[in-house]
Every structure is written in C-alpha cells, then in structure tokens.
Amino acid sequence: MKLDHLAVVCRDLDVGCAWAEARLGVSLQPGGQHARFGTHNRLLRLGTGEYLEVIAPDPNAAPFDGPRWFALDDAPETPRLGNWIVSVPDIAAACAVAPVDIGRALALQRGDLVWSLTVPEDGSLPWGGAYPTVIQWGDGGHPAERLPDAGVRLTSLMITHPMGEAAGCGIDDARIHYERGKDIALHATFDTPNGPRSL
Q1: Strands 2-9 and 113-119: what pairing?
Q2: Could you tell me which of 61, 67, 141, 160 has the fewest CB atoms within 10 Å of its CB?
Q3: What's the number of CA atoms in the CB half-sphere (13 Å) around residue 26?
Q4: Distance separating alpha carbons of residues 167 and 163, to the nearest angstrom
Q5: 19 and 86 fall within a common domain
Q6: Which of 170, 174, 134, 139 is nearest to 157 (CA)?
C-alpha cells in the first residue's frame, strides 16, 4: 500500500476549493466529472504520485445508478478532510485481506485516466474514513503527473478513531499516525511555500 491522495469532501465544489485554497495558500487545478457517481473535483499535486482533491456532488450530472461514493449523498456543507486513498498493485488481493468491508472494486474512467477503486454498496466510507479507500491505477497514467507542482507536500496524516491503531490498514508510511478518540477525524499537515498549513 502506498498513499495516493487525500479527499476534501463538501456540498459545493467552489466553496470547498475556496476553503482549501485559503488554508493552503495555493490554487487548485481543474479536475473533471465522474459520471458514474455524479461528482466533480479539482486537484493539487502533493509530489510524485500524490495529490489532494476537493470533491463534491455535481449539480449538472446526468442521472446515475446508485449512491455517490465517499459518502457524498450526505456531503457536509462545511468542507472537511473526509477520506484518504491508497494505491495497490493488486486490488483484489487488498480487498481479500481488508479487516473491514471496503466494498467491491469498480472499473472507472475519466478521459484517458483508468482505475479500479473500492466502493461499499451504500457509498459509505469504511470505518467512517479511518480505513482508506483502495485504488489501482491502469495504463493511462496518474493525475499527479499532469499537475503543476505548487510546492506543497504532506508531512503528517493523523487519523482519530475509537479503535485507535486497531483501525489501521498496516501501511508503511512514517507520515501516517493513528490516535484513539471519541470522534472519527482526519487531520493533515503540509509544508507549503507559505509555511506549515493544515486541513
């Protein structure tokens, strides 16, 4: 498992982008639409193979089948860091050993980007977002490769959950930590051209 990207979830994409940009002091780049789930996003490169996305329901989306991913049928009005996504070389193997139901791997595409991603049947987040969504990229490349480098790097991701470390996925990344707490929460810190910032 390797950290792939972080997701800020919100009800309105413009509001979510303004929230993230004000906190990080840099501009996000255009992303695209996800017709399968009726969402759209904007992106920020975090270095090689890593990025941040702000994602929200797309009010102009055509009708689609099933709930939205990332629990976005109940998108928060106030933006927040709501999900983290890890990449794997074999998504079927990752699903087989996950300690929680992470959903089935769906084959998805946006333009020439091709990937498989785990989505529970009800669109929820495993352990409320404490356990990551799992992605396997196809041959179309990776979004971070296409984004300008704004000089932002993740330095720490703290995941709070009532189970603490027991909610972990076993990822080998010194930046990722768990703590026990009553409420589920994600807290990320970054090095930016404007100094340390957090979401």
Answers
A1: unpaired
A2: 141
A3: 24
A4: 6
A5: yes
A6: 174
Residue 196: exposed, middle, or buried by beta-carbon count in 10 A (0-12, 13-18, 19+)? Answer: exposed
CATH code, domain with 71:
3.10.180.10
Residue 84 has pLDDT above 90, yes or no: yes
Residue 191 sits in which domain range?
153-198
Confidence band of 140 (pLDDT split at 50, 70, 90): confident
**Same-domain pairing of 82 and 103:** yes
Separation of alpha carbons 177 and 180, rounded Å: 10
User: Quick check: 64 and 38 in contact, CB under 8 A?
Assistant: yes
pTM confidence score: 0.94
What is the chain's mean pLDDT, rounded?
95
Per-residue tokens: 190:
């970054």
Percent above pLDDT 90 for the chain: 88
